Amino acid sequence: MHRWRRYDPKSGHWLTVSTVAFAINGGRDGGYRGYTIKHNPQPGDWRVDIDTGEGHLIGRISFKVEQVAAAAPTTAETLK
User: Fold this and answer.
1) Positive or negative, the Cα torsion across 7, 12, 14, 16?
2) Any long-range contacts for 76-80 (C-beta under 8 Å, 24+ apart)?
3) 5, exposed or middle or buried, with CB in 10 Å at 0-12, 13-18, 19+?
4) How far apart are CA 33 and CA 18, in angstroms?
5) Considering the entire predicted model, what is its pTM?
6) Quick one: CA dihedral 27, 30, 31, 35, positive or negative?
7) How far apart are CA 28 and CA 56, in angstroms?
8) How far apart are CA 52 and CA 29, in angstroms?
9) Rounded Cα distance, 31 and 38, in Å
10) DSSP 42
11) Cys-Cys with 36: which of 4, 9, 20, 58 at CB 3.0–4.6 Å?
12) What is the pLDDT along the chain (80 residues), one digit of tens a residue?
């Protein structure tokens, strides 16, 4: 389960914005992988908690969303 949370500086608490549950089947060398996507997140401090189905925290990633005036330039590159 991925629990998307945004820090609310007014309350001083992390607010759960969405919770996404999904099944992971099988496996591979080095473990399992899964991902979720959040569209149009508000600027601010964010974190995604990775929980088991029973609610046990097994990982967390934190990041900051910033609004910018223009998108960063990109270039296409073909890897060989």
Assistant:
1) negative
2) none
3) buried
4) 20
5) 0.78
6) negative
7) 22
8) 20
9) 24
10) P
11) 20
12) 999 999 999 999 999 999 999 887 766 776 777 889 999 999 999 999 999 888 899 999 999 999 989 988 899 999 88
Two tokens, residue 41: 């997140």
C-alpha closest to that of 3 among 41, 59, 43, 76: 59
Residue 26's pLDDT is 67
13 neighbors 65 (Cβ within 8 angstroms): no
The DSSP output letter for 29 is T
CA gyration radius for the chain? 16
Q: Give the distance from CA 18 to its chain's centroid.
A: 10
Residue 6: phi and psi, rounded to 5, are: -120, 140
